[in-house]
Amino acid sequence: MKNLGNMLKQAQQMQAKMAEMQATLEAATMEGQAGAGMVRVTLSGKGDLKGIVIDPSLLVADEREVLEDLIIAAHADAKAKVEAMMAEEMSKATSGLNIPGMGGGGLGGFKLPF
Questions:
Q1: Can you tell me the distance from the alpha carbon of 46 to that of 30, in angstroms, rounded to the nearest whole number?
Q2: Helices within the chain (DSSP H only)
Q3: Which of 65, 72, 81, 112 has the largest CB neighbor count within 10 A?
């Protein structure tokens, strides 16, 4: 019965840490760049698009495909930074917890829906 009590306590700790992590992600933003900073994309910590900045020199009809590619590359850069931040926050949230089935103190490869 003592183990069950410990598991419940750890689950409550994890729930509190997860709520804190979600608040941190909600407040954070990450910027990705492409074309030496000529295109910049800002994402929230949850991956929502918050802004795009395009250097005016790219706004030429003949350069449309280049601009499109740069936007995609800047988004991918920002998304990779958001994912790295999420992984770091998840690691912080689950450190020290040893809940069975969670991979020895972590989420054991579980992917969260945000």
A1: 10
A2: 2-27, 64-94
A3: 81
